[in-house]
Each structure stands twice: as C-alpha cells, then as structure tokens.
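During the second year of the project, the team shifted from modelling isolated chains to modelling whole assemblies. The rationale, set out in the original proposal, was that interfaces cannot be judged from single-chain predictions alone. As a representative example for this report, we include one of the complexes processed in the last quarter. Its constituent sequences, exactly as entered into the pipeline, are reproduced here:
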Amino acid sequence: MNLLDWIVLLGTMVGIAAYGAWRTRHTDHLDTYLKGSKTTGWFTIGLSVMATQASAITFLSIPGQGFESGLGFVQNYFGLPLALIIVCAVFLPIYRRLGVYTAYEYLGQRFDQKTRLLGAGLFLLQRGLAAGVTIYAPAIILSAVLGWRLDLTIIGTGLLVIVYTVTGGSAAVSLTQKWQMAVIFGGMVAAFFVVLARLPAGLGFGGAAHLAGALGKLEAVDFSFDPNQRYTLWSGLCGGLFLSLSYFGTDQSQVQRYIGGASLREGRLGLVFNALLKIPMQFCILLLGVLVFVFYQFQPAPVFYNQAEWARHAHGPQAATFRALEEKHATLHAAKQGKIAAWREARTRHDAAAERAARAELAAAQQATDAVRTEARQALTAADPRAKIKDSDYVFIGFIVGQLPHGLVGLLIAVMIAAALGSKASELNALGATSTIDLWRHFRPLAVRDEARNVRVAKWFTAGWGLFAIGFALFAGFSENLIEAINILGSLFYGVVLGLFLTAFFLRRVGGSAVFWGAVAAQALVIVLYCTLSISYLWYNLIGCAACMLIALLLQAALPKRLAV
Amino acid sequence: MTPDPDNDESPGLPGFRTWRGVYWFVFGAFVLVVAGLALFSRVFA
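Output from the structure prediction step:
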C-alpha cells in the first residue's frame, strides 16, 4: 500500500465514522438511540439490514469460495427471500404494534419474564461470544497479507466502531452503514471490471465464463436429493429458510435495524429490498471469485495462497519438500495453460469433437493441479499440525494487493474494513440494547422513567461490549477451529430461539412455563444430538425449532393448568 | 396473540394494492432468479 491507498482507506473509513458520530451527536432520546431516527426511509433500512449481514468475511471468504468451489454456495441463500416474506407479514407488524425495543421484550409480553430472560440470555451468550470473532477474523487476514500488526488492527477497528456506535446509537449505525455500503458496492464493481480488464485479450466475459464452466465452476443450482452434497437447492431452501427466519426474525442485531423507521411500510420495503437483491448480490461476489480463478489460469499461480503461512514453513527443515511441491505445481500449471490454449483453439474452429477432447484433457489437468494443492496442505500439516491450511480466504485479498492499481487497493481494503465496521456496529448496538432493556431495566424497574439515565446506561453497555469484543479478540488466541466452533454454537441456539417466537405467534394456547421448559429441553436435545450425530449443523435450526414447539405443546397439555401458564 | 393481517397498510407502490401482491412479486422474482441461475449454469457448462 502506498500513500494514495492510505489516503483513500483512512479518508473513507474515518470520514464516514466521524460523519456518523457528528450527525447523531445529540441523540438523547432512548427511542432514537435504540431504534434509530423516526424519519428513516426504506432505502436506509434496507442497506442497514444488508450491511449487518455482510461482514468482512463475506467479502474475503465468498470470492475465495467461488474460486475454490464455484457458484454452488449461492444455494445457501435460497431460503432467505421466503424467510423475509414471513418476517414482513408476521414478525414486523407485531414488533411495531407493541412498540418494543427488543425482540425479547415481546416474549415477556406474550409469555412471562423468565421466557424473556431466556431469549435475551441466549442472544447475549451467542452474540457475546461471536463479538470477538467479528473483529478478529478479518484482522488476522488483513494483518497477514498487508503486514499490519494484528493487535493494532483489532484495536484500531474496534475503537473506531465503538466511538460512533456509542455516540449516536442506532441512528449512527444506520447512517454510517449507508455510506459504508456505498464504498462496498463501489469497490466490488471496480474490482469486477479490473478482473475483466486483466483477462487475456479476446477472452472477454463470455470466454471466461465458458472456461470456468468447462472447469466445473459454474454449477449454481444442484437439483439432486443427495444428502452428501453440501449445497443443493433443497438444503438451501429448507435449512436456509429456518436459519434466515431465525436470524432476521429473532436476532436483535437484525430486528433493531428494521423496527424503527418512519412507518411499518418503510420497514417492510427495506426487507423486500433485501429479499430481491441478496441472491443476485451473493451471486456477483461468487462470480468475482470465479473470474479471479480464470485470471490465475493465465498467470503464474502460487501452490498455496496464504503466502505468509507458506513462507513461514518453506524455509524450515521440510524446505526440500516445499520446493518440490512448488516446482511440481508450476509444471502442471504451465501444462494446463497449454490445454486451455488447445481448448480455445478448438472452440474458435467450431470443432465440436476436438473441443470435447480438449475439455476432457483440461479437466484432467485441473484435477492434477488440485491434487498438488492438496499435497501442499498435507505438507503444511506435517510440518506444523497447527498450520492454517485453508487458503481460499487469502485468494481475493492476494489478488487485490498484487494486481490492482494503487488507490483501488486502498478502496478495496476499505471495503473489507467498512464491512467489518458495519456488522460490528449492529452487533454492539444490539448487545447494548438487550443488556439495557431486557436485563438492566428488568432488575431496576423504577429506572424506566428516567430517560436520560436509560440512554447513559445503554451507552455504557454498548462501550462495555465493544471493549469486551476487543479484549476477547486480543487474548482469546483463536484458532481456525475455534472460529468455526463459535459459528456453529450460534446455529445451535438459533433454532430454539425461533421455536420460542413461532410458539408465541402461532400456538396461542401455550403459556409461559410450558414454552420455557420446552425451550430448555429442546436446547438440551440439540446439544446432545450435536455431540452424537454428524449431520450438517444447518439442520439443527429445524430440529431445535420443531422440538421447542412440540415439547411446549406436550407440556401445555400435560401440566396442571395453574403450572402451565 | 395472532399476527395482523398483512394488508393493514397500503404498500404505496405502483401496480400493487396489497402487501400480499408484493409478497407474490418477491416470490415470483425468486423463482425467476433460481431459473436464471440454472439457465446460466447450463449455457456455460
């Protein structure tokens, strides 16, 4: 990065944060602090919902996913539009009519205080643990590639987000997310055109897409019922529906984005905006990764894309093995380039038989280079069992730093940091709101009328969660497996929380005690099943939700009336 | 507690009189996007 990159990066990031903090510095009403401005329109709400879901990892990992496995991952989002329709029709009108600050407040009104505390507690536990990861995960990648100090990257981004989130609350979060999304869209569109421009002359988008298709990277929809396939239309529709319903309907970091705003209409349109745009947006990000894959077919490509990790081991006792793998990969990669040239020539001649033969040879060459990459990962593990062997997260950032012109490098790094700040801000805002409304006000009911004190407490909680996240990221010493474990932990809770809400909406006869113990039993069941079965964790959203509703119904029927309410 | 009917407020969008219509539009767009993705894969496979 040169001076121009730093000016673009700091100018956009600090500028947006300062603008958000300054514009919302007089936020002293609890309603505005926790729900945002009453004049917020659907476009800002829609961008805010989008920015909350799109973390930095979205823009680092998803192009890498496209590079590695193609477009199939887009099916993970197939349940999202359907879930958002249900949130618009059922969840949002109820939240708005009751005028709640948090989703869990509704559980208190519908059932009782212990059920509300259970919902809020599960949210705080899950989001609190994830809080450090949201800062840590992008920081570790940026620091490895750009040579920044990890601790300073975590502290710098963490403090920046704390400043404006604490100052302006929800209003500042929505305002800054709007501009952060502008940076993100601008940066990603620029990257898309740069990749296209860097492809060999005469290839173009169509040629690149045909090459990616020939190498099996463009299979976006898999209609098979094979349970061993990780992403299919059906797993995306079913698992994705429950995951999205739980995330958008009951996770306070999302609920807080749309319950405020000028009217019910604005909230609904903001969600409809996401229902329409999310799949095309994820498709474009994956496609960007596929185009980077095509770009590297015509360039010298590394055997392992996390170059810092590779270099750390390549000069050790196994140096000869590592060098041999590099040479083997370079030879096979060059041979593959020859096969690509033959395939392109056959296409130009419109010789179908030659094209089929060249395509088969190309696929075999791809398998050979993939096999060397697998060998490289095995060599890393052999050299150090704790080595980070997942390199797909480093593909896109490596491309940015190595191939983009100065200025755009700064803009694309700003995209990553803007995404990190946007999702982190919503998370802190939600943790602060839930701690204030569902915990502090519950235990200090007399303080409800003192609005200024409520705002002060919300600010302290928000700052406290921010500092906790920084501390957790700095000292927890995350491994790749721990990051994944914390993400899985979130999925284990989501189903039961969704079960609480669906029981509240649709099972009118079920009372507080029945649903509370139903949720506790369902949560225990999910944990036991997770420890004993080896199914995809997406299914626990469905299992947790169904178990919670079913056990609550059974308990309601079995418990004496005075105990069941 | 039961959910409100979903047409308690007009969507105020040209061509749509009820929210139910908006939801059907979103569903239709989703089906078209999935079909478009399947077609894209087929064309370039």
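The mean pLDDT of chain A is 89. DSSP finds 22 helices and no strands in chain A.
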